[in-house]
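Contributing: when you submit paired examples, paste them exactly as shown. First protein:
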Amino acid sequence: MQTTLSEDARRLPRAEEAESILRSCVHCGFCNATCPTYQLLGDELDGPRGRIYLIKQVLEGNEVTRKTQEHLDRCLSCRNCETTCPSGVDYHNLLDIGRAVVDAAVPRPLGQRLLRQGLRGVLPNPGLFKGLLSSGQVFRALLPNTLQVKLPGNVHPAKPRPTTRHARQVLMLEGCVQPSLSPNTNAAAARVLDRLGISVTTNRETGCCGAVDYHLDAQAAGLERARRNIDAWWPSIESGAEAIVQTASGCGAFVKEYGHLLRTDPAYADKAKRVSALAKDLVEVLRDEPLDKLGVNSDQRLAFHCPCTLQHAQKLGGAVEAILTNLGFNLTAVPDSHLCCGSAGTYSLTQPELSRQLRDNKLNALESEHPDVIVTANIGCQSHLNGAGRTPVRHWIELIEAALP
């Protein structure tokens, strides 16, 4: 795509990257065929190709409007288009660049600013989030339905974690909301890894991966969280930790971006690259281990929802399904399994109507062969799908842990 950046755009820190991405797009439109928002709305500007045009216009010096911001806001950042694109357009990085420019130029309405600031204040703070969640459970009946559906129903308490006893050790990012919404997920992962001779160590100095800030108009704050996590992990990395494990694929996808996002930071570029190389989704660790040692052989009927951050961002589609099938679980077929469930981080709160439509479509597909339970690999998807009150949704590692002899 022929592109001539304006003088102002050329002064942006990522101007060269933006221009390179824009030039790689060949206008084919294949991306629209798999874009969830284009499927729902049928508007060219609510598909990847249209959004690329909008960002191009902005970077070439054309007027930035509230409508431009709305079309960019409606993007789920699911990266389905990247999987589809024959030209390898690095869409999500272009979107990040474009959003930063647009958000700097177009002030949001007060209600939106308060919502986004509130989400940034609450979600990355596990203690505050847990307190508000407990209060919400007490006063559930008084809350509007939009908040009631966000409160978990049956929370499975965390089982005891094994002590650190193996030579092989991995770090684990605990996450922001997962310890409250699904407290047994990380405990189950630690117990399964322990059976395989791998001990999990946690670092209380780590915090939010940075994705919440980064995707809610505060990219600098998100990168500062990344730096703090790198500093917290670094002593353990130097001591030989073999991986930084994430059980939430959304967090994992962002940690794997640290190396790219901090590549121009002279103090952190090399460390960030190392951290991204060590970052592994739980399935990447387990698939290389002798899982027959676990003694699991279950024929439970499951539908697996593969999060966008696992299949499109981390390119791990099919990996969890292979493990579950090899362990005997009966996986049902899921039509259009490449499509987003509508969770997309905070999207279900910032774009609730579109998010509900996508959730219901996804649940119809997941339930089409009547599974006993739905499993997934990301707490955002798990909470969002559970909010419909239909088939229960859990993290896949919990089903494996429950089947251990």
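Second protein:
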Amino acid sequence: MKPKLVVLTGAGISAESGLRTFRDSDGLWEGHDVYEVASPNGWAKNPSLVQEFYNLRRKDVLAAKPNAAHIGLAELEEWYDVRIITQNIDDLHERGGSSRVLHLHGEILKMRSEYDETLLFDIAEDIQMGQLAPDGGQFRPHVVWFGEDVSMIQPAVLEIVQADAFVLIGTSLNVYPAAGLVNYLRADVPRFIIDKKIPPVSDSANWTLIEKAATEGIAELKELLKL
């Protein structure tokens, strides 16, 4: 049995692949107020704007390539049972070679009915207004918006409580409930943070801090974790 390495990743790991988030520019995401394009109210007010916004994000993701950090995590599967929990909606972990990836906030390459979040379909093209799910609901991106339930949080907690080692990469720990996952770690679990700007953690003395970009930090982590 390989030891279980649980990794929680945020936007910082995909930034080096050219994918930006609204946190890059004072709450604006590609020029839009985030609540205009990432909330149920925004969808109700102007669904065409929201649809077009995510159609563009999907194109960005398809054009991006996994970087050395994504690939490095996949390579750790040689020594560990690696479980990735990501706040990112891109598929760069999968394309980087990771075999077990849990998406907390959905996946841009899937679409769902606006009525039923379990009616999921793969999508690599634009989603069109008027394109309806089998239940008659408009198709929308399979993305968790602000104010919506994070249905994958309980499966994520189950991974965290079984961790033999834990790594936090490229997340500010500002978005809940994802930020609260670190509180479920067992006290004796070795824990690492990789970030250009280390986020505040209450028990920072118990963490190994790697204050570097994700690609550099993963190279250092691999040396620390090799069995």
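If you have annotations for the second protein, write them as plain sentences, like these:
The chain has a mean pLDDT of 92.
The first helix runs from residue 11 to 15.
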